[in-house]
Each structure stands twice: as C-alpha cells, then as structure tokens.
Sequence to fold (627 residues):
Amino acid sequence: MPRKGMRSFFYSNSPSPSRSTASPSTPGRSISEAAMARVVEQAEAMIMKWDAETSAYAKVTSLFYESKREAYDFIKCVNDLQKAMHILVSENSSSDILVRAQRLMQMAMKRLQKEFYQILSTNRAHLDPESVSTRSSRLSARSSTSDYEDDGGPEDEIRTAGDSISEVEIVSTNVMDDLRSIAECMISSGYGKECVDIYKIIRKSIVDEAIYRLGVEKLSSSKIHKMDWEIVEMKIKNWLEAIKISIRTLFTGERILCDHVFAVSDSIRESCFTEISKEGATLLFEFPRLLVSKSRRSPDMVFRTLAAYTAIADNWPEIESLFSFESFSAVRLHALTTLSKLGESVRTMLSEFESVIQKNSSKSPVPGGGLHPLTLEVMNYLSHLADYSGVLSDIFGDSPPPVNSPSPEFYFEGSESDDTPMPAVSVRLAWLILCLLCKLDGKAKQYKDVSLSYLFLANNLQHVVSKVRTSNLRYLLGDEWISKHEYKVRQFAANYERLGWCHVISSLPENPKAAISPEEAKDSFRKFNSEFEQAYRKQSSYIIPDPKLRDEVKLSLARKLVPAYQEFYETNREALATIRNVEMFIRFAPEDVGNYLSDLFDVTGTMNSGSVSVSSSSSSSSRRRHR
Fold:
C-alpha cells in the first residue's frame, strides 16, 4: 500500500476497537467501501468536468493551460482513485464501485493522454534541446510529483530558484514538470504504453529533423566517391559542426528531458531515449567511416580525417555518458570502430605521403639555389600535422616504426633524454623529415656548380629548421634536434663560401701588407678584379630566402674578404697612384667590395642587375677617388 493517501480515505469517526471486535468482518468492509465510494465521487466530479465527450468547455480547453492548480488537483484525484481501486480489488473485485472507478479511470487517462500530446506538440520551442540543457544546468533535479501536496505547486518551487532564471527557462521547467506529472500518473495507473508511444513519436521526429537540418544524411561510399571534392569538403565541415551540436546539445537535451519525464522508471527511460536517438546517433557516426573509404584522396584529406578523429575523441566521455544504456552498445561500438578506421586511414595517408616524397622525380634545379617546392610542401604539411600532436600520439601510440627505418636514436642523436623512449609520433615525423632531407641531397647533385649545391642545401635545411622552430614540431622533435640541424646549416653555408669565393680570396697575396713591386701589385689587382667580377656575375643570381641566414652569409663573406682587400689596397694604392690609367688596375675600393657583397642573395632584386654594371660603376667611382 502506498505510504500516502490512506489517511484521506478514513475519518476520525471510525468504529472503536470494541465495536470492531463484536462484528469483525462485515462492518470493516462497509466502512472501507463507503470511504472508497467517497473517493470515487470526488474523482468523478473532477474527471467529468474535463471529459471532452460530455463537456463542450473541456473539448476546446486545455486543463494545464487553463489552471495549473486544477490540473494538479486532477492528477491527485486520479492518483487517489487508483489507490482506491487497489483497495477495492483486494476486498471485493466484483464491486459496483470498482466498475464505476474503472470507467472513470479510462476517461481520466484519455484526458491526460490528450494533455500530454498537447503539451509536447505545442511546446517544441520550450522543449528544444538547448533550452532543456540550459535549464538543467541552472536547476537541481525536482522531486517526484507523486508526492505533490496541496500547499504548493511548481510555480512556488520555481520562484525559489532566483531571479537569474530567464522566462524561457521558467516556462521550460514548468512544461517538463507537467509532462513528468502526467507520465507518472499514467504509468502508475497502468497506461504507460499510451504515454510512451506519444512521447516517442513526437520527440523522435524532432531529433530526426534536427539531424537533417545539421546536414547529416544517409550516404553510401559509392555516392561519396562520385562527389566533387568541394562538396565532400563542405559535408565534412557540416559534420564537424553537427557532431559538436549533436553531442553537447541535441542528444544531451533529449537525455535530460527523457530522464526527467520518465524518472519513475529506468526501463522506460532507456526504451524512450534509445528509440528516439539511436537511429540519429548511428547516422552521425556513419559518415566519417564512409569518408575514409573514399578511394581518391586530396592532400588536405589527412587534416579533415584528423579533425573528424578529434571530434569523436574529444567528445568520447560525453558519448559514453549519453549512450550508457545497454541498448546503445551497438552505437558505442560503431563510434569506436569509426575512430579506429579514422586512425588507420591517417597512418595510411602518412605512408602514402612518404611515398610521394621518395618518388618525387623533378629534374630541373631550382634557380639560384632557392627553396625546392618539395621542401615547402612537406614542411607546410608537417607543421600543420603537428597541430594535431595529441591526436597523432593516440593514433601512433602502438604502431610500429616505418619499415626498414633506422632506430629512433638515429633521428635524435645527442638528445638529453637518451634513456626515455621517444614518442611514436615524434619518431614518425622525424622520419618524414629525414626522407625529405635525403631527397634534397639528391636534388643538390643536379647543380653543375658545387658551391651552388651547398647553398641549395643550406637554404632548404634552414627552411626546415625554421618551420620546426616556429611550429608545434618544436615540442615533438626537441631543441636538441633543432641545434643539431642548425649546425648542419652552418656547415653547408661554410662550404658554399669556401667553394664559391676561394678563388677571389686566393687572388690576394697571402700577406696583404707585404711590400711588393708595382708590377706585382698591378698583377694582383688584375687577378682580384677578374676573380671578383666573375664570382659576382655568377652569384648575383644566387638567393638566400631566409633573412637571418642571408645576413649571416653576407657578414661572413665580408669578414673574410673586405679586411684582406682593404689591407692590400691601402698598402699598394700609393705605389700605383702615378701610373697612367690607374683605374684600369684598381677598379674597386674596399667599400665597393662591401657594397657589392651586400647586394647579393636578395630574393626580391633583379637576378642579373649587378653583373653587367660591375666594371663601369667601379671604374666610375674609382676615377672620382683618384682625381
């Protein structure tokens, strides 16, 4: 027997124990039946008032919209009627009062069924998932209305939540409580199926419509394969937004609403939420699985795949919590399978990218020893990949190293953490960079001028190091890796200087200050002019894109060349001052040499602008100085 309600069935003028003892059975039944009859009469007055078949007023009026207090009185009458029926069944199952009560119960359930449908269908705006989610975060769980007392209604409880709750949230809360009251009343009265059927039909249509509006639709792998990449990319972007909204708002709101309305029954909560959401959730996790089965791939496909992987992985705690029911095990497995296939696809695409690097067959050397397109493409690709370092760590966590690759220590020689195994993702990215550098070594051999091949290597390795230093690759490869490769850049640059300018430097006497004859001085100036002009003409088309490296090479060349030439120039200029046409021998002042060196390697300058004017401009400036 329920803990409440029986007090209202019996009154204080009940027979005394002595009278009950004298007549132990019949008086007890008559008193109980009389009490039950009064309960039925009270319920009949309320139920008949709102019977649409006997009252024109009830036919066009909503009980819950007309008077919330009377609506809850109606539910209380039905609950009391149900308790009375239980007592009557146990005492006299053939009682006329019981028949009358059953007829009234059917009328009441029909009324509540209509109210339940009206509240659900006319309050879609107040029951949308966003409103429900917001309401849930503001208000604590409400107590079951099966314990509802006459001394207060939902409005009184809402007022206690404070003025910070918006009007929409208040309406949403009231509507949810109304639905819960009706659901509990119908379920306890044995009409749960009618209530649940209405709920499932209306709420499932809302979820299905929301999924459709989010751009998630049923597709096949073959249909995706036939789509233009622009359309596929648009669908991927739609899906990324859709999963965020679906998990955090749509399904969360539906779960909260379902849990609240059917709080009285765990099995009904599970059944309703499963039937409402399972199809939409399955469709949501199906798209990325179909996406990775698409045979043709674009270079950006790996980033879209990583974004899809991230979207599921980041929301996994919510996915597990939302779809925790056993009936959702297939959905959880589907999401996990999709996650696994996305990870497998990323590993495959990186292997394909490695093959693209190794199979690059461009034969034309890059003009001026500049950046090879392969360097730009690979480093842009890898620096973007590094933005997904956390996800990549999950994807490559248990994967073996590349086939036939050196041990990880080979990539991280000199690392401070020799005793700590390098993360698999770090090893994988370091390997891809190594593949690029090996390919660049081969490209350098395309240059006939060995000095230019070293400048090419210096430029491209400097770009690699710069991209690592300024992206998340730095945290994956480490400062030791950067230092090691910066040292290699300096070695390449030094080799370029040595091979590209050694003839110019060696054209000067070993001791620039040593006294020599005018003829020897003329010959040395002549050799310097020839070697310097030849080197300048050749290298005026050479470029160094990186400003820092460009300045370092210019400064290094100036330090090697200008002081030595200045000493030679100042030691021998006076001895040749009296010679006729001295400008034919002394074409460059020391500052001219410095100026010409400072004009080298400019990416934006005209390649051959300096080469045709070296002699004329030098002679002109020399004549001005010797007048």
The CA atoms of residues 343 and 394 lie 8 Å apart.
